[in-house]
Amino acid sequence: MGIKYRKSYKFAVKSSVVITLFSTLLLLVLQYLFFNINMLFTVTFTLLFFAFSFFVLQYRVERFIYRRIQKIYKEVSILDESVLRNQPVTTDMQTLMYEVNKFASDKKIEIESLKVQEEYRREFIGNVAHELKTPLFTVQGYVSTLLDGVKDKAIRKKYLERADKGIERLIDIVSDLDMITKLETNELKLNKQTFDIVELFQNVFDLLEMKADKKDITLMFDKDHYRSIYVNGDREKINQVVLNLIDNSIKYGKENGTTEVSIEGLTDKKLLIRITDNGYGIEKKHIPRLFERFYRTDASRSRDIGGSGLGLSIVKHIIEAHNEHIYVESKVGVGSEFSFTIEKAVKK
Ligand SMILES: Nc1ncnc2c1ncn2[C@@H]1O[C@H](COP(=O)(O)OP(=O)(O)OP(=O)(O)O)[C@@H](O)[C@H]1O
Ligand SMILES: [Mg+2]
Question: What residues does the Histidine kinase domain cover (predicted)?
Answer without folding.
Answer: 127-346
